[in-house]
Amino acid sequence: MIPVHTGVIAQTIQLALAPVFVLVAIGNIMNILTTRLGRIVDRSRTLQGQHGQTTGREHDMVVIELRYVDRRIQLIGRALLLLVISGLAIGVTVASLFVGELTDLETGNLTGLTFSLAIAMLMMALVYLLLETRIAASSLRLPQELLELERKI
Fold it and tell me: What is the total count of domains within the chain?
């Protein structure tokens, strides 16, 4: 181990702040996703209860909504997985910054690679969130007859 000056550690902490801010953003997005997932699970339980009690067109509508709910759960699950991987990559990024400063090891490539991986996973998770919200919006379209668009109000 090489002797480390306080200034070097302070500089490394400053360098680690950007990845840590990304980690905070990841945590906030995970919070949003878990809240959405909880609501979707509640809705799926309601629909599962209705599944056995409906027939005909009403039953078909329940099945269609269950399919939407199932797809939304899959998308959020994938997004959460990507965010966890992203968070782990941020942790490795910060660790590699400190290991590089405290030892003779050259960790620049690892730091760059893990940070890039973290950002890529974060972006992919956001795409899944976008897809999930699009499905939610399309499944909640109001029937045109309820809007009574022919009426001037």
Answer: 1
Are 77 and 41 a contacting pair, CB within 8 Å? no
Among 30-39, 46-55, 102-111, 122-131, name the one with the lowest average pLDDT. 102-111
Predicted model pTM: 0.84
Q: Which domain holds residue 66?
A: 20-139
Is residue 79 one of the residues assigned to a domain? yes
Q: What are 147's two structure tokens? A: 């809007």
Pair 127, 25: CB distance under 8 Å: no
User: Tokens 């709910």 identify what position?
Assistant: 69
What is the distance of C-alpha 19 from the center of its chain? 17
Which single residue is written with the structure tokens 């801010």?
A: 21
Question: Which token pair is 93?
Answer: 């990024």
- Please determine, for residue 9, whether its predicted confidence score (pLDDT) is greater than 80: no
Whether 1 is in a domain gets the answer no
DSSP-derived secondary structure for 49-92: HHHTT--HHHHHHHHHHHHHHHHHHHHHHHHHHHHHHHHHHHHH
Reported as a single tens digit per residue, the pLDDT across 69-82 is 999 999 999 999 99
